[in-house]
Amino acid sequence: VNLAHLHLLLNHVPTIGLGFGLALLAASLLRDSEDLRRAGCVALFGVALVAIPAYLSGSAADFVLQSASKRPQEVVTAHQNAAMTALIPLEIAGLVAWLAMWRPRAWHRPAALMLSIVAFALMARAGTIGGQIRHPEIVTAGAAAAAPSWPSPAAAGAAFVLDNPWVWPISEVVHFVGLCLLFGVMLLVNLRLAGVIGGVPQAEVNRLLPWGMAGLGLNIVTGMLFFLAAPDQYTQNGAFIWKMGLMLLGGLGLLYPTMVTEESGSPRDVLQAGLTHKVIAACSLAIWIGVIFFGRFLPYIGME
Amino acid sequence: VASVLALLEQTGLAVWIRESGTLYGYPLILFLHTMGLSTVVGISAAVDLRLLGVAPGIPLASLEKLFGLVWAGFALTAATGTLLFIADAAKHASNPAFFVKLAFVGGGVAALVLVRGRVFRGGARGAGLAAASLACWLVALSAGRLMAYIAEFIS
């Protein structure tokens, strides 16, 4: 088993999983159901998160093909660009779905639905091109040459970093700012969840959550720039695999404080946190510290 | 000054941090430095956002506890920062970004002390202080993160 297998496993999430989330969200708009709304938003947010390692593992699969000298270069490049073209609207859809869970507004679900329909169509296109890499027997003559080369955001992102020497250092700065924002907000939200901070309802502390999400967003964008410019440096690094696994867990863990409802009867209830909350808060903080650990150790461990 | 810096670099501790090549040396110290400063800057930024009107429903009294965590984070950052400095004393002392970083860390800490005294205890609104604090940390972070690149550039 290698990371190419992981890609073959994960690449179904942004296509089939997205179709599933999209259907739930559409159903929640047709039938005004709170349960369907939650399910649709959670599914879309989860798909948007898993789509990131799905994309990254594609570069790992490319590395495997390169070392086996079995790489149909044009199709791989077209697949990569098509995947990034689909990933961008999908990530925005995931963010809007998260907003719909955090503090619903009337435009959230229709916007998330529109974005995910666009993302679904683009993902299907990326998948079709990707299938030609794995199954050359189904490619009819001339189909590979007809693989679309536009738009090419993956190639443009890599060129942007590689052609401008200032982009990498500035992105490192932004990555650090994003880290501090996310970690600071996670500290406050989880310390409240654990009951360490008292005398304030969770919902009030949760107003800071979009700033943590903004930090996460900055880090996904800048992290993706690093990855596009030097994919092998990351896919061949064990610390990076750990970092991405933990980031996925941490991201999914964001759902808990976002969706938690508390019985705010007497002021004393607000001050008390159950054991479940304490455990979840501790795990969440440990996960983010782990993300920072593997990120910081990346240059020192994990190189083959 | 140059001889003091050279002396610092040749201490056994400095040599070990710089040259031992173990994960418990330079990488671990760097990680702890990152953890300490992201705690300080992260919590400061969250408090500043509160003072600037995000999440106005959080009573300041409920955040007072966090100052303990901030000072612990600062102690960790300062201790690990000292270790990282002595490991490459001459190099860092000739890097302008290092002094920019120190100055703005000073500004950030001063803002924290003022926020505690004037806003948490004194009842001032503190929006100006919060903005100054955010600006200081932003510059300090940028200068710190860019140190390695600037050192490469000037050498």
Name its key features.
heterodimer; A: 304 residues; mainly alpha; 14 helices; globular; B: 155 residues; 8 helices; 83% helix; elongated
Task: Give the topology.
The complex is a heterodimer of chains A (304) and B (155).
Chain A: H1 3-10, H2 13-30, H3 34-67, H4 73-102, H5 108-134, H6 153-163, H7 167-193, H8 202-205, H9 209-229, H10 231-235, H11 238-253, H12 255-259, H13 267-271, H14 275-297
Helix pairs in contact in A: 1-3, 2-3, 2-5, 3-4, 3-11, 4-5, 6-9, 7-9, 7-14, 11-14
Chain B: H1 2-10, H2 12-19, H3 26-51, H4 60-63, H5 66-87, H6 89-93, H7 96-121, H8 127-154
What's the main sheet of chain A like? none
The multimeric state of the shown protein is: heterodimer
* Spatial gap, N to C terminus of chain A: 16 Å
Mean pLDDT of chain B: 95
Largest sheet of chain B: none
Helix content of chain A: over 70%
Element order, helices and strands of chain A? Answer: HHHHHHHHHHHHHH
Describe the structure.
The complex is a heterodimer of chains A (304) and B (155). Chain A is an all-alpha fold and 304 residues long. Chain A is 77% helix and 0% strand. In chain A, helix 2 packs antiparallel against helix 5, helix 3 runs antiparallel to helix 4 and helix 11 runs antiparallel to helix 14. About 3% of the residues of chain A have low confidence. With 155 residues, chain B is an all-alpha fold. Chain B contains eight helices and no strands. Chain B starts with a helix and ends with a helix. Classes of the chains: A mainly alpha (304), B mainly alpha (155). Chains A and B meet through helix 7, helix 8 and helix 14 of A and helix 3, helix 4 and helix 8 of B.
